[in-house]
Amino acid sequence: MDDSRVSRMIIKSKVASLGVDWELQEAVSGDAALEQALHWQPDFVTMDVNMPGLSGFDAAQRLRELYPQVAVVLLTANVQESSRERANLLGVHFVSKPVTEAAIEQVVRHFQAAA
């Protein structure tokens, strides 16, 4: 989930380049992600923090309440220590942007370990 179309495209492309055979869905906001999750229960979620409407933190919290088993990675440029601490409190993994191959590899490794 990311409000940046470019970020979503890069994430999809890099995940596919790693040979991971996952069905990927996109959402443009926290609200849209939660609505989508009600119809398509995700196993893994990458989530930006700063988005219009529901923030990534709030969406992650609600998503974890709905589906405690879902693995969530906050993939964000919001790299302040307070953001890392909040991610830790929510029980979600934190990876800093930009969306690079190394960042996506870190995300995929986290998801594979969580599976």
Throw out a few tags for this protein.
115 residues
Please explain how this structure is put together.
The model has no long low-confidence stretch (mean pLDDT 94). By secondary structure, this protein is an alpha/beta fold. α2 (30-39) packs parallel to α3 (56-66). The protein has helices at residues 5-17, 30-39, 56-66, 81-90, 101-114; strands at residues 44-47, 71-76, 93-96. A 3-stranded parallel beta sheet has the order 1-2-3, with helices on both faces. Helix content is 50%, strand content 12%. It is globular.
Fold blueprint:
Layout: H1 5-17, H2 30-39, E1 44-47, H3 56-66, E2 71-76, H4 81-90, E3 93-96, H5 101-114
Parallel strand pairs: 1-2, 2-3
In short:
It is built from 5 helices and 3 strands, in the order ααβαβαβα. It is α/β, with parallel strands linked by helices and 115 residues long. It has a 3-stranded parallel sheet, sandwiched between helices.
Q: Please write the string of helix (H) and strand (E) elements.
A: HHEHEHEH
**Structural class by sheet pairing and helices:** alpha/beta
Number of contiguous helices:
5
Oligomer: single chain
Number of strands: 3
Strand order of the largest sheet: 1-2-3
What's the N-to-C terminus distance? 20 Å
Radius of gyration, taken over Cα atoms and rounded to an integer in Å? 13 Å
